[in-house]
Amino acid sequence: MRVKIQMKITLKKIITFLAFIISLLYVVIFYNFYFARNDVYATEETTANISETVISQAKEVDIENIIEQNVEQGKKEEYSVEETILEYLTIYRNNPSLPKGTIQVVQEGREGKQEITTKKTYKNEELISEEQISSKITKGSVNKIVEIGTSNYTSSYKVKVGDKIYVTSDRLPVRFESNENSQKVATLTKQNELKVLEIQEEWYKISCEGVIGYVKAEGTTYINNNAKQEINDTTAKSKTQLTANLDFGMALNKPSGLTLEQFKKILSDSKDVNKVFENNAEYFYYIEQQYNINGVFVAAVGIHESAWGTSKISRDKNNLFGYGAYDSNPYNGAYSFSNYSESIDLIARVFVKYYINPKGTSIYGGEQAVGTYYYGSNLSAINTKYATDKNWANGVYQHMKYLYNKL
Predict the structure, then answer these.
(1) Which of 87, 139, 88, 137 is nearest to 116 (CA)?
(2) I need a labelling partner for 156 at 20 to 30 A (CA). Which of 16, 296, 306, 388 fits?
(3) Which CA distances in Å does 23 have to 11, 16, 35, 92?
(4) Domain range spanning residue 327?
(5) Residues 6+ apart with CB under 8 A from 149
(6) Same domain, yes or no: 245 and 394
(7) Rounded to whole angstroms, what are the CA distances from 254 to 59, 149, 155, 245?
(8) Residue 166 lies inside a defined structural domain of this protein
(9) Among residues 338, 343, 322, 331, which one has the least CA distance to residue 388?
(10) Which of 146, 176, 210 finishes a domain?
(11) pLDDT digits over 210-265, tens only?
(12) Do 203 and 174 share a structural domain?
C-alpha cells in the first residue's frame, strides 16, 4: 500500500518537473530570440550612427578654410597709441591796404598735439598693413593767418634808413633788441607811421610817437604812391632762365622763381576739368615766398596724386595730395580741409620740415627742419619715404616738365 502511494507521488513529481523544464526551455528560447534580435537592431543602428557621424564630419570640413587657416597662422593685430604733432592750418585773407604782391604774416601758426590710435597687422612677424582708427586732440593748434596785398601799389621798393613805413599787422610788438625773445617795450597797431632809424636784416629800428625799439620788417610796408607797376611784371624771368636747372636731380628746396602770373599761366589747362589748379594757382606762388620750396614741384605732386583734381579724396575733402591716407584704407584716413589752399600750404610745410631739408636747417617761422625723412632734396630722395610707389618720382617729374614747358 505504501509503495503504491509513493509511486504515484513520484510520477506526479516527474510530470511536474518535466513541465517545469519545458517551460524553462521555452523561456530561454524566447529570451535568446528576443535579445538576439535586439542585438541585431542595435548593431545596425550603431553602424548607421557611425556612418552618419562620419558623413556629418565630412560635410563640415571645408578644405579652403583649412588652407586659409594654415596661411593665416602667425597673423596678429597690434594696437598702439602715439602722441604726434597736430599740424596747424594757414588761413589766407586779402588786405586792400597792402601793395599787390605783398604777403604779410599777421599771426604765426602753432602746432598742437594729438593721440593717434593705430592698428598694425602682422603676418609671420612682418608688417602687412597699418591703419589709423582714431585720434584725440590733446593740445589744440593755432592757425597761421596770412594777408595778401590787393592794392595797386608795388612792394618792390627796398626800405632805407630815414624812410617812413606803416604797420600792417593788427598788433606789432616793439622789442628792446632785434630778437624775438627780447623784452617788449610797446605794441603798435595797423596803420601806425614809423620812421626807420636802422636796418638789421629782418629787423628795423624805428621811432614812433616817442617809442624807440626794434620791429620785424615783415610787419611793416612802404607805400610809394607814384608806383603803379606790379612786382611780377618787373621781375619775371624768361622760360630759358626758369628751365635752366630743370632736371630729374634738381634741388627742390629752392623757389622756382615763377611770378604769380606765370603760375596762373602754367596751371590753366584743359586737363583741369574742375579748374581746381587754375583757381588755386596763387597758393603755389605763396608757398614759394614763405617756405623756400619749388611751387611747380608741389603743383606736380598734387596733379599726380589727384589726377588733376578729379580724385574722390580731392573732390570730397579738398585734399589734393591724399595727405593722411594709408594704403589699406586711403579714403577714410585722408585728412579733410575747408578749402584747397589749406592742403597746399600744409603739404609744402611738411615737405620743408621733414623731407627736403637736413635736420637743423632754419625754415619758416623761426623753426628748424626736423629732417625725419631727409635723404636729399631731389625727387628720388623724397620718393624713398614719401611714397610706396617706386615710380612716384618719375610720374611727378613728367608733370613738372609738362608745366615748365607751358611757360
Answers:
(1) 137
(2) 296
(3) 18, 10, 18, 116
(4) 236-404
(5) 95, 96, 97, 98, 99, 100, 101, 102, 103, 104, 155, 221
(6) yes
(7) 68, 23, 22, 11
(8) yes
(9) 322
(10) 146
(11) 899 999 988 887 765 433 333 344 457 888 999 999 999 999 999 999 999 999 99
(12) yes
